[in-house]
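ugh ok fine here u go
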Amino acid sequence: RVRDRLPSGRVITRTVFCNQPTALLRPRRPAAPQHPAAPAPRPAPAEAPARVPTSAPARAQAPTSAPAQAPAQVPTPGPTPAPAPAPAQVPRSTPAPAPTSPPEPDTPAPPHVPPPPFLAAHPTPLFVPLVPPPTAPKPPPAPLPRPDELTPELDRAATALLSDLRRRTPQLTLSETDVRQLVPGVAAWLERAAHPDAVRRTLTTDLPHPLRHPAKLLKHRLTALLPPPLPGSQDLAVPARPRITVTPFQTCDDCDRAFRSPAPGHCRDCREHRAHRSEATRTAA
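structure:
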């Protein structure tokens, strides 16, 4: 949620939500730059037809016109006749260069689009999955608790409690192997001063339906719901508060000023005045 201010001055709360939060964790591919369409070719100017090279029939007529123009040039009378000029050579028209397409303009870089305000304020991913994906490696299960010392009394009491569960809860009918594996966990509960009724209530309350693996369920409850050991009498004692010594107020014998001191007497100014006066008396003597 991001607060935004409208042009009118009103402040609103803009909420952005996503139907697929996991898509935010994948890197986004940059969009391909869109090239602008090539401009249409410009029409040829009006002088273009004059530059077009002459066709084959026009080239063929050019030599025939040259002899016709030769007799028109009559040499002037004189003592030495002038040599006849060479037939005029009609200059061939050079082919016009092929029109070249106009150069394409440089492709402009895509405009920089600033990120939305809610993304600029949160450079880190907005969604962090709290539940690991199914392919994530699962941590190893916690081991079954064990007592500090498995005495014969604890072993017998734990075995009797586990064997008696099927009398009140038929779904918790355990095999002899399961009982021997779960005895250390029940013994750890009993060693921590847990009442047998409390242990039985914890193991038999709110069972799933159907119950497919009773031994695994009991192992999980004995491990996850293990109570802490009972505190000792010294742990329950309230620590004594440290005594704070308060220096009492005294009244100066000379100026009647109040000051703090464990014993009555003179204040600081009076003590300094007395010391200065005694020093002056010794100097004068």
